[in-house]
Automatic annotation (TrEMBL):
This is Beta-galactosidase. Its EC number is 3.2.1.23. It is found in: Secreted, Extracellular space, Apoplast. GO terms for molecular function: beta-galactosidase activity; carbohydrate binding. The keyword Signal applies. Residues 1-25 form the signal peptide. It catalyses: Hydrolysis of terminal non-reducing beta-D-galactose residues in beta-D-galactosides. One of its GO terms (cellular component) is apoplast. Pfam families: BetaGal_gal-bd (PF21467), GHD (PF17834), Glyco_hydro_35 (PF01301), SUEL_Lectin (PF02140). Coiled coil: none annotated. One of its GO terms (biological process) is carbohydrate metabolic process. It comes from Salix purpurea (Purple osier willow).
Amino acid sequence: MARMLCWFTATLLLLWTTAIGTVRGGNVTYDGRSLIIDGQHKILFSGSIHYPRSTPDMWSSLISKAKAGGIDVIQTYVFWNLHEPQQGQFYFSGRADLVRFVKEIQAQGLYACLRIGPFIESEWTYGGLPFWLHDIPGIVFRSDNEPFKYHMERFVSRIVNMMKSEKLYASQGGPIILSQVENEYKMVEAAFHEKGPSYVRWAAAMAVNLQTGVPWVMCKQDDAPDPVINSCNGMRCGETFAGPNSLNKPSIWTEDWTSFYQAYGEETYMRSAQDIAFHVALFIAKTGSYVNYYMYHGGTNFGRTASAFTITSYYDQAPLDEYGLVRQPKWGHLKELHAAIKSCSKLLLDGAYKTFSLGPLQQAYVFQGNSGQCAAFLVNNDGKQEVEVLFQSNSYKLPQKSISILPDCKTVTFNTAIVNAQYTTRSMTPNQKFNSVGKWEEYKEPIPEFDKTSLRSKRLLEHMSTTKDSSDYLWYTFRFQQNLPNAESVLNAQSRGHVLHAYVNGVHAGSGHGSHQNTGFSLQTAVHLKNGTNNVALLSATVGLPDSGAYLERKVAGLHRLRIQNKDFTTYKWGYQVGLLGERLQIYMKNRSNIVKWNMLGTHQPLMWYKTLFDAPAGNDPVALNLGSMGKGEAWVNGQSIGRYWVSFHTSQGRPSQTWYNIPRAFLKPTGNLLVLLEEESGNPLGITVDTVSVTKVCGYASESHLSAIQLSCPPNRNISTIIFASFGTPSGNCEGYATGNCHSSSSKVNVEKACKGKGSCSIPQSNQFFGGDPCPGIPKVLLVDAQCT
């Protein structure tokens, strides 16, 4: 993933010892407790930020925000098909500038983890493998297969040597402390029979022999050969991880999923800050020492980089959202968790460890120092009710499904279920509309006919093997004679995925598509045939290539059977066209746009190109394109693809999986930006808007039991303009939905306005004195404030 992703990359200098005890490798070693950096055991919090899923001008800010959130390590995959799109042709510029990204991590004083793979999955097209590998004779991906091993070792060695040449490994004074080879291979290993285990042994040995001076990991690989560390991926590694496969290896969590990747037709997966914090705290309580958040910033699947059916936005619910904005309370709650754990990290790493029961579903994890110091994690696994437990002669209330951290075994400094961080609301504000016919021009993509095709076959060709990932699109064309008067007939097509548009005599006859769970589908539609020659053209489209599973090189897509009326055309003389004419001519580029003749906007038809110009919104807020009025296609800004869109594929709740599409500021110039869209269906460009993205609301909640004041803070250059809601008393609900309760101080809103209005940030005490008296003596009170930022 991303789904089943895994990770970690780094390597080993000199020879690693496989004996029980510390394993040495330059300045980074490890033992059964943790990684050891420059002789010091470390508890490390890591965040995944993938360099090609953002732009270089964003990297500094993203890394800085991660650091401010208590992150120690930035983890990234390395994307083989980005760096070697054609065999022997390498690319390391722009968003692919891996060295620049790692140096930015170093400049901000953080460590790096490099997950070289080179199979990465990650919801990235073809799992990161370049498609040209598919055509290497005799190749079997990810197995003990000489052609695959040759190319894998060649690429991994190139990346390692590039890092060495820039002195970026910790053993050279650089930031890289960890590397990963392969990725969640245990999920498919059995499918390769005896070629699976031998491949694992080969991959581990190949990596270690590159002598990087830092450890390597294999995620979800419980048989990772020494000295490679086996690690956990998932949402609940404190509960599911069986542990390291050797006593001298530390417990590492390489992917703690902060949300989940999303496919077209599926709803957003929402994971709460409380749930993430609970499972991180549990993992640390059980002597885990390294946790990576996957993702800390997800970013954008620009261009055609998303895997099959994956939406363009990636892990938008991460602590830093797609646009790089801080998502609260997730960011703040995890920051407080990191601080609480770091405050007692020496005890956690050096102390004597014991655990004992506090109740049927309650447990204490205690770390005892030599001089009487003590740290404890008190766990309540009861998901239904708060409980009170007795620990070291003191009573503690534990909210349902929560963990309290006591750095001194006395005082609770953090509870995973109690959120002190403010909540924020992100809004999209329309900046420019395109609702005038005069603002648009259109170009109709021509429907090819059999006579004009040069690629021919007497059978249906497999889609991916034919396009070789040069385009999403493959035209299947043929012609046949109809010797009856004009008549209605039925076209029945079967496709292995992902999308099919049928045209008969140049007229759109129908469309069909599969889904993430079932890529194959059938299309049955009525067609009008004429007497004489009929031209049939079927446009097959992939929505990204598959990214997982055994024998990836055998995966198939595209049309595999066709009948019209009772005649089977599966074995027939077919003509093929790879890609669309507009693609081949690159009419989305400003200097090539006028190669074709554009017309004024007319009726909305399938398979149309649209173009317009717009100015960049003023200010520095992120920019997004609202494509809610469109169907399916791809969008370009100044020649750069901002990704595929598929607004017409609704979820079970009847809404698009994604409506807004990120336009990085780096893609824009002040005026005259060219927007080009390829629309496969019949979307209406008049409804498109260019929007700005910002945090517009902040909300805080405080009760007598856990917080003495609310801290509200608007983003930079914004102030609190309106107090939407304020209640000191017994308001119902929380920041996600609220109402005034039976007890309410009448001065709530007035006093909060005095304290906050016109300010960028403010503090509101949860006290009777601040609100001019006790509105309901003897009743525990809550303070809830929701404010507008302008």
